Amino acid sequence: MLNNLIDFSLRQKVVAIALVLIMAFGGIQALQHIPINSLPDVTPVQVLVITKAGRYSPYDVEKLVSFPIESAMNGLPDVEQVRSVSQFGLSAVTIEFHEDTDIYFARQIVSQRLQSIMDDLPEGVSSPVLGPISTALGEIYQYTVRGEGYSLSELRTIQDWLIAPQLKNVQGVTEITAFGGFVKQYDVILLPGKLRGLKISIEEVMDALAKNNSVSGGNYLEHNREQYI
């Protein structure tokens, strides 16, 4: 084979030189236009589903959150692999699709399937959300917030309201997922004896709290050619 190629090149010198010039020109063009990356993206098409699970342990997160989501995603078209990571109060399920699958189509069918399992998730679990469009190298850094004299609730507040907003201003940061600590909340402790003395039921207290926490828009009220806000 090699001898025939050499003989052809010697007999057809013009053709051989032309082929070499064409290949050299094509190589120069490819060098100038083909993107080069020290860490090329060779990961498959994948969709990340993140679910915050409150104070559930890793075992409970795996059993009550990650497993139901994995089971629901296994039936989607073009799915090649489903895996999950369950941590304290956090579930991360990764669904890998065939390499020819459009990423936006994959995210759409995952989002639709999530709607069908919302009612199966336990109380205290937030609605699953899709992670940003990124590769397996997207999660690059994990950090811990510590401080002497601060409670877990105060540390979580510092993370959510001080650290996370500033990190989101950094170029290239698309999402920050926080877990652990206690999210600040207000607890209403009922005293049954006083409720009975005031003839107030628990349902009335719950209705009052719901109305107090509701948010509604304002409007104008017209009366006798006058407007009231």
Write the layout of secondary structure elements.
Blueprint: H1 2-11, H2 13-33, E1 46-52, H3 58-73, E2 79-87, E3 90-97, H4 103-115, E4 129-130, H5 152-168, H6 192-198, H7 202-212, E5 221-223, E6 226-228
Antiparallel strand pairs: 1-3, 1-4, 2-3, 5-6
Descriptive overview:
The chain is elongated. Helix content is 41%, strand content 14%. Strands 2-3-1-4 form a 4-stranded antiparallel sheet. The protein folds into 3 domains: 2-30, no CATH class; 46-130, 2-Layer Sandwich (Alpha-Beta Plaits), CATH 3.30.70.1430; 147-212, no CATH class. The relative contact order is 0.10. The longest helix has 21 residues, at 13-33. The model has no long low-confidence stretch (mean pLDDT 85). It contains 7 helices and 6 strands. With 229 residues, the chain is α+β, with helices and mostly antiparallel strands. It has helices at 2-11, 13-33, 58-73, 103-115, 152-168, 192-198, 202-212; strands at 46-52, 79-87, 90-97, 129-130, 221-223, 226-228.
Task: Give a brief description.
This protein is of the alpha+beta class and 229 residues long. The protein folds into three domains: 29 residues, no CATH class; 85 residues, Alpha-Beta Plaits, CATH 3.30.70.1430; 66 residues, no CATH class. Helices cover 41% and strands 14% of the residues.
Here the CATH topology of the largest domain equals Alpha-Beta Plaits
Describe the sheet with the most strands: 4 strands, antiparallel
Structure class: alpha+beta
Unreliable runs = none
How large is the share of residues in beta strands?
5-15%
Element order, helices and strands?
HHEHEEHEHHHEE
Terminal Cα separation, in Å?
92 Å
How much is the average pLDDT? Answer: 85
Counting DSSP E segments of at least 2 residues, the number of strands comes to 6
Q: Radius of gyration, rounded?
A: 30 Å
As a percent range, the share of helical residues equals 40-55%
Q: How many helix segments? A: 7
CATH architecture of the largest domain: 2-Layer Sandwich
